[in-house]
Design a protein that fits this description.
Blueprint (H helix, E strand, L loop, with lengths): L2 E8 L8 E7 L6 H11 L3 E8 L2 E7 L4 E2 L4 H12 L9 E5 L2 E8 L2 E7 L4 E2 L6 H5 L5 E4 L3 E5 L3 H6 L4 H4 L6 E7 L7 E7 L4 E4 L3 H15 L3 E6 L5 E8 L2 E6 L1 E9 L2
Parallel strand pairs: 2-3, 4-6, 11-12, 13-15
Antiparallel strand pairs: 1-2, 1-18, 3-4, 4-5, 6-7, 7-8, 8-17, 9-10, 10-11, 12-13, 13-14, 15-16, 16-17
Length: about 260
């Protein structure tokens, strides 16, 4: 059976920017090993697989190396496909049951807002080798259940970062977020995200990282709402809001490719 697959650039309105994700809308659950092989074939930071299940969709995310517990950009891409291809009306909420519980998405005038769990960080000692691998002088180091957070003194440090990926791969972690307050008045903070633990050297724009960044910067800047920029080579913008134990992540998306899997 031929399986449609759609590639979407998330957290951008411009093709070939933001974070690309492949979306497979299935009729029924698929074998885990098949989904992992498809994700490896697509060779994107994430491939999303979803199928109808009652009043929601069951959604799973795979990197080329592993299944992950939470992914923002591939959820945004999945919601975009549901609305763009008419599986849901534009005014209908997209509901996804995932390994991180029920996630919701809504559409408003070209922007998709994801309702995700907040993952606030707590201060932590950096694991051996992390600071050497990043070659930075941290202002603060923290971590949550997924990643380490390294705060540096300025945006230039974030943008110019050239980590030693070989050293990063030796550290027992999913990934590390590097962040600083933005020098650009259009944004409140900037970040980059490196995820060697799941086979992604650098993720272009990371929704799940902003589940950590939003509560951190909310505490530092004493606000709840921000405009953020992830300063990877592709780059992407987000509007984020800290809402108690949730984080609202808003971004745009554009379809760039449609195809079929033939095996």
């Amino acid at each position: 059976m031929r399986q449609p697959i759609i590639q979407v650039d998330a957290f951008t309105a411009t093709p070939f920017a933001g974070n690309p994700a492949a979306v497979c809308l299935l009729q029924a659950p698929a074998p885990d090993d098949w989904m992992q092989r498809v994700a490896l074939e697509m060779n994107l930071s994430e491939t999303a697989f979803l199928h109808p299940e009652g009043d929601h969709f069951r959604l799973r995310w795979f990197t080329p190396a592993a299944e992950v517990d939470l992914c923002g950009h591939a959820t945004l891409a999945s919601a975009h496909v549901l609305w763009e291809d008419g599986h849901l009306a534009r005014d209908a909420e997209a509901r996804f049951m995932t390994r991180s519980g029920l996630l919701r998405a809504t559409y408003d005038d070209g922007w998709i807002t994801l309702d995700f769990p907040a993952k606030p960080p707590i201060p932590a000692e950096p694991p051996e080798g992390l600071i050497d691998a990043l070659s930075v002088r941290p202002v603060a180091v923290a971590r949550n259940e997924f990643d380490y957070l390294v705060v540096v003194g300025d945006e230039e440090t974030v943008r110019n970062l050239q980590p030693n990926h070989g050293l990063l791969q030796r550290i027992n972690m999913r990934g590390v977020i590097v962040t600083a307050k933005s020098a650009d008045p259009a944004y409140d903070f900037v970040s980059r995200f490196f995820a060697p633990g799941v086979g992604v050297p650098e993720d272009p724009v990371t929704g799940s990282a902003h589940c950590c960044l939003t509560p951190y910067w909310s505490q530092v800047l004493r606000r709840q709402a921000f405009t953020a920029y992830q300063a990877s080579p592709r780059g992407g913008s987000l509007r984020v809001r800290y809402a108690g134990d949730r984080v609202l992540l808003s971004g745009q998306a554009v379809t760039v490719m449609r195809g079929e899997l033939v095996s």
